[in-house]
């Protein structure tokens, strides 16, 4: 996703122009942290060491310490993180992995790249995360893992899902790509499963300047296997113990992440403040995000819901306000995954949500005036639909 400027000149006829209030704008945060980011970049460039060096090691230690886990292993991106987490757990061909269809297709892609079969289940209507009852109903003799997604910054019900995995002796892997710093019962997400995966894509709450990811675990043998898998299965430069891939976190991205990490909690607090302002302005107009009682949401996305979603999105676009839908076509209905055998109507809660949800602008640097403009446009548009 390209970063868009916050304000532009009038758009000439026939030109392609950016919205006055973009859905996402990466510049304010980059400008705020410019001294730290420039120092990190210059340190790497001056070092002459660009892949799997001291910056990666330092970030891995810092990220593990932040979460309170024993090991973090940097990888190239969040999709690789899912694949390598499954492979490190010896899950592959012939195995089934339960996850949700209401997620970025990267979740399903990572499972298939590990050779396993994704089994897609429905979501809780309020939180948009995995329905534990649906996951329980999907378990078969071939099930090896449950892979919940902490979506939009909202944790899944880790109390129920941990108990379910324990009861059936299944590996639990958390997809935390949208939930850096989120907590369930005052524990960070990523600390409940046998493994957890993270993406640090530029739009994430903790973001790199390109693709980056990590897998975390409390098990030393698993961490050792992950370090081998990310670099051709090598135990040293000339010996591969297993078949691996090339999924190495580079020094520049690690240094940028290391520079941003001390500010993550502050930035998440700012996101919650923006979300609270939206809640106050919009609760009588649309369905605003529900936060589970045991959850601490970090608002990677601010997702509202309305039966008038399409008309609302069109009108906001006409007024120069950027929006996105996360996600308009669930994974089980994507053409790429037609061979999984799901039909329209098979996951009704997911499918209804996909028709009604809309992500509004929320990012570090969104001004109170911009937020009020968005909220006013939402309210006025939907008020027109009232009798």
Summarize it.
With 387 residues, this protein is an alpha/beta fold. 37% of the residues lie in helices and 14% in strands. It has a seven-stranded mixed sheet, sandwiched between helices. A three-stranded antiparallel sheet has the order 7-6-12, with no helix packed on it.
Major beta sheet, strand line-up: 1-9-8-5-4-2-3
Task: Return residue spans where pLDDT drops below 50 for at least 5 consecutive residues.
Answer: 1-10
Helicity, in percent?
A: 25-40%
Tell me the distance between the termini. 39 Å
Multimer state? single chain
Major pleated sheet = 7 strands, mixed
Number of strands: 14
Overall 3D geometry?
Answer: globular
User: H/E order of the elements?
Assistant: HHHEHEHEHEHEEEEEHEEHHEEHHEH
Q: Averaged pLDDT, please? A: 94
Backbone CA Rg = 21 Å
**Helix run count:** 13
* Class from helix and strand fractions: alpha/beta
Describe this structure as you would to a colleague:
Helix 2 (34-47) packs antiparallel against helix 9 (251-260) and helix 4 (78-88) crosses helix 8 (220-229). It is globular, with a radius of gyration of 21 Å. The chain has helices spanning 27-32, 34-47, 54-67, 78-88, 105-113, 132-137, 158-167, 220-229, 251-260, 264-282, 309-318, 348-356, 368-383, and strands at 71-75, 96-100, 117-121, 143-146, 171-175, 183-184, 187-188, 195-199, 213-217, 234-236, 239-240, 295-296, 302-305, 357-360. The strands form four sheets. It has a seven-stranded mixed β-sheet, with helices on both faces. Strands 7-6-12 form a three-stranded antiparallel β-sheet, with no helix packed on it. It has 387 residues and is of the alpha/beta class.
């Amino acid at each position: 996703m390209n970063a868009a400027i916050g304000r532009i000149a009038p758009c000439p006829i026939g030109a392609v122009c950016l919205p006055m209030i973009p859905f996402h704008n990466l510049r304010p945060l980059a400008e705020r942290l410019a001294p730290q980011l420039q120092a990190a970049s210059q340190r790497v460039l001056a070092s002459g060491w660009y892949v799997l060096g001291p910056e990666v090691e330092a970030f891995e230690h810092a990220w593990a310490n932040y979460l309170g886990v024993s090991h973090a292993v940097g990888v190239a991106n969040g999709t690789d993180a899912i694949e390598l987490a499954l492979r490190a757990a010896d899950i592959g061909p012939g195995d089934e992995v339960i996850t949700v269809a209401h997620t970025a297709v990267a979740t399903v892609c990572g499972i298939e790249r590990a050779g396993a079969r994704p089994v897609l289940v429905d979501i809780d209507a309020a939180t948009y995360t995995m329905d534990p009852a649906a996951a329980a109903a999907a378990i078969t003799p071939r099930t090896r893992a449950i892979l919940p997604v902490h979506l939009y910054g909202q944790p899944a019900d880790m109390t129920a899902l941990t108990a379910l995995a324990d009861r059936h002796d299944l590996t639990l892997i958390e997809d935390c790509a949208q939930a850096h710093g989120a907590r369930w019962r005052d524990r960070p997400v990523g600390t409940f499963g046998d493994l957890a995966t993270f993406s640090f894509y530029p739009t994430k709450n903790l973001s790199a300047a390109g693709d980056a990811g990590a897998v975390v675990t409390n098990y030393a043998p698993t961490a050792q296997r992950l370090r081998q898998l990310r670099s051709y299965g090598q135990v040293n430069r000339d010996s591969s113990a297993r078949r691996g891939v090339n999924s190495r976190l580079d020094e520049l991205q690690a240094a940028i992440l290391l520079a941003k990490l001390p500010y993550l909690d502050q930035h998440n607090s700012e996101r919650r403040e923006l979300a609270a302002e939206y809640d106050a302005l919009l609760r009588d107009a649309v369905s605003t995000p529900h936060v589970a009682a045991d959850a601490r949401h970090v608002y990677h996305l601010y997702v509202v819901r309305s039966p008038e979603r399409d008309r609302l999105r069109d009108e906001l676009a006409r007024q120069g306000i950027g929006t996105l839908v996360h996600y308009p076509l669930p994974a089980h209905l994507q053409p790429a995954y037609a061979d999984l055998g799901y039909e329209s109507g098979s996951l009704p809660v997911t499918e209804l949500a996909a028709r009604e949800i809309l992500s509004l602008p929320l990012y570090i640097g969104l001004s109170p005036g911009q937020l009020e403009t968005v909220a006013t446009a939402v309210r006025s548009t939907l008020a027109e639909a009232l009798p």
